[in-house]
């Protein structure tokens, strides 16, 4: 656990530097924090935007069907994936944080649905790799790659690669390279591993076995991918060279596998699901990279806090929200926030989803037509945001900066 302990020290140092930087910001302008919530409806093709602090409704965007929502790492863009409709709507969140070294500027404008719509046979996973976006089309196996900035600057000319046959896959940009899932050779083996492509789409080196690959996340410059038998890490090569694959087996953790992953920001750590009623902390570079955390009942959703780096939040089907301390690997607080939502039934049934917006955890409560705002420091519900329809998927966007 040396790496995480070292990282924790870095977080304290970072907090000190941030406080000093904030003093300088006040000399130039006003420091401002803004967060917005984007909520997909379970029954209709609608995405609704709200101010996370006031609960005010900001916008409503009509699309074709219930979306899966993915926010870019910058928070500037939300992708509303409508696989069965063959479309991905693109929403400008109206929040842009620009880094200027000693401080950041926060630019605020109206959230807007862009005229640009990404299309495909069955578009699925959208993955951000440091500002470069890859959209995988399950219906064809094609990958559309582009820079996020091009969406907002009117210079959108994507690159389309065709690395393999149609399958429920994924692609992750890593600098000049792209990590892509490999389809299996039979319907019983839908996904068998990962391979590396260069900018022309040519394969680089050998692939790596990752049976049933599903789920990915980035922490620092490392990507992690879930497999039926473990986790594959893709680490950038020296001097911008080709990324290297490392397979970490999970056989010692017992029955289960990782298929959903979240990546830490200030700490290089991943949090993944493991079976129905556990999660696993994954620490690259550690002699013991896995720490399994058993939960009191089945897991509904989970999220990492991008600011309070040691915090993870897990909602279980009994309506309890749990605080997981990443450093200790222990659940340190639990509170009931919703009525029970059973995990029996279809996986697409309306159940709560989590997003972290500054000092709050936003939790959709589909059956009550609400988003519940929970304070990250006290775990108390500080307000309810009424939402029309059946609020379901949710992402948060925003940050802090100087407003000149």
From TrEMBL:
Q: Which domain of life is it from?
A: Bacteria
- Which keywords label this protein? Hydrolase, Signal
Which stretches are transmembrane?
Answer: none
Q: Does the keyword Signal apply?
A: yes
Name one molecular function that GO assigns to this entry: hydrolase activity
Q: Which residues form the signal peptide?
A: 1-21
**Entries under InterPro entries matching the protein:** Peptidase_S8_Asp-AS, PQQ_b-propeller_rpt, Quinoprotein_ADH-like_sf, WD40/YVTN_repeat-like_dom_sf
Q: Does the keyword Hydrolase apply?
A: yes
What is the name of the protein in this document? YncE family protein
